[in-house]
Amino acid sequence: MRYLIMLKAVPPPAPPPPALMEAIMKLGADATAAGALLDTAGLAPSAAGARVSLAGGQLSVTDGPFAEAKETISYALYEVRSKQEAVEWASRFLVLHRDLWPGWEGDAEVLKVFGPDDFGPPA
Amino acid sequence: MAVIDPRSVVETVWRMESARIVAALARIVRDVGLAEELAQDTVVIALERWPADGVPEHPASWLMATAKHRAIDLLRRQGRYQEKLAEIGRTTPQAADPDLAAEMDDYVGDDLLRLIFTTCHPALSTESRVALTLRLLGGLTTEEIARAYLVPEPTVGKRITRAKRTLAENRVPFELPPPAEAAERLASVLEVIYLIFNEGYAATTGDDWMRPALCMEALRLGRVLAGLAPTEPEVHGLVALMELQASRTAARTTADGSPVLLQDQDRRRWDRLLIRRGLAALARAEGTFGPYVLQASIAACHAKALRPEDTDWERIAALYEVLAYVAPSPVVELNRAVAVGHAYGPARGLALTDTLEMPNYALLPAVRGDLLARLGRAAEARAEFRAAAAITRNARERAIFESRAAELT
């Protein structure tokens, strides 16, 4: 089963502590070595992006930044045997922040990616 | 807001960490059976304590540390601690560290590799290697293994018990194979992983065409192995082969579960991420010509063709020729005949099948049927498809062969 984990947080005023970055790299290496992490990357603040909308038949483009309190700051794509395993990887990621960046708060959204096991095969 | 359920965390973290924990314990007690028992005891302790005391701050580390303490306690009780300490000191590159548990931490990767080499040891039957690998490295329960292989649970239980006893009786050392044996032992490891993958990819019995869970488990084991033995081209070749084959999973069956042949698959349903990963793994093995690398190179030819007619059949035929030299087998010859039939015409393909003798192998008459049909020899083609239908044990496959025969009337 594949899960997309999106990390959301209020953009912090200071860059993350080097020890945290080091720990995140190690966790990524561990998850890769465990055969679970397929892909991951950090995301620039929404100021660098844009949103293309369709409403009432009209396309519109809005440049970032967007007004949301929390920004998506990274994503990771995992292949695991259960939702609980995806939740455990997300928890490990947040535990690193808890241990190494006091005061940091955020959410890791664990989203299931549909795969062949979720659909009937094509007609 | 739902509170984290401690029991669920115990089960999940155990499943994710069990191989590393068993591997670490096996290094301490030098017996995989005993290591697994000690690890299971640790799970029981966690199931008692976590719901009462709360989930520890670092659940995986807690399990590992508790398990190691139990193993060291056991050795101390048996008065064998100093002896084992000396033994481990001799077999590691570093001098003996007075703190055994701390020293262990640096060797998790090597321990896992040792565990893989042990569960795939040639002293065990193939069935036992598969069962023990799924049990100790995949963390699958006996029941799950039995369900995947359509055999009674007690049978799997006996295989695993017997395998552990065989390892103990033969005093199979829990260590990396000596250089002279390394290649042969690695071949056994790769074979076991690919057997597991294939059992999931194309079930040999029953009506279940695929058992995706086994495929995913084999793929995961392959990725783990690639991390542990990054300089072995064939490991990357096997991973590439499995990623590329798994990329076709969604396109391989129709709504009623019948298989869809490669040239008929909707290629938009192929998993591009797995294809990318497969090609990347193959690139790591480039320039080598082991059997898995060659098979992965063939799979890559298919993966790179956006339409069936873009397939580089000449390259595939050439790769099969090399494969037939490196790892000769009738199956390889048959596949080579298919490729030659596409690259240079059905008559040349058919000529290659004429000398093949593969009793009870349904794909030989099926391939001959296809080549004969393309040559316009309908009556002979029909007879071949009927022969294929009579041989196969897979109900879906039989239906396809029967319908091919019927089309030719």
Write the layout of secondary structure elements.
The complex is a heterodimer of chains A (123) and B (409).
Chain A (H helix, E strand, L loop, with lengths): L1 E8 L8 H16 L3 E6 L7 E6 L2 E6 L7 E9 L3 H18 L5 E8 L10
Antiparallel strand pairs in A: 1-5, 1-6, 2-5, 3-4
Helix pairs in contact in A: 1-2
Chain B lengths: L5 H24 L2 H22 L5 H19 L3 H11 L8 H5 L3 H12 L6 H11 L5 H8 L3 H17 L9 H23 L10 H17 L4 H14 L25 H13 L6 H14 L8 H14 L3 H15 L1 H9 L8 H12 L3 H14 L3 H13 L2
Helix pairs in contact in B: 1-2, 1-3, 1-6, 2-3, 7-9, 7-10, 8-9, 10-11, 10-12, 11-12, 12-13, 12-14, 13-14, 14-15, 15-16, 16-17, 16-18, 17-18, 18-19, 19-20
Count, helices of chain B: 20
Strand line-up in the sheet with most strands of chain A: 2-5-1-6
Low-confidence stretches of chain A: none
How would you spell out the order of helices and strands of chain B?
HHHHHHHHHHHHHHHHHHHH
Distance between the termini of chain B: 65 Å
| Sheet with the most strands, sense and barrel status of chain B | none
InterPro entries (chain B): DUF6596, RNA_pol_sigma-70_dom, RNA_pol_sigma70_r2, RNA_pol_sigma70_r4_t2, RNA_pol_sigma_r2, RNA_pol_sigma_r3/r4-like, WH-like_DNA-bd_sf
Protein name (chain B): RNA polymerase subunit sigma-24
Keywords (chain B): Sigma factor, Transcription, Transcription regulation
Family (chain B): Belongs to the sigma-70 factor family. ECF subfamily.
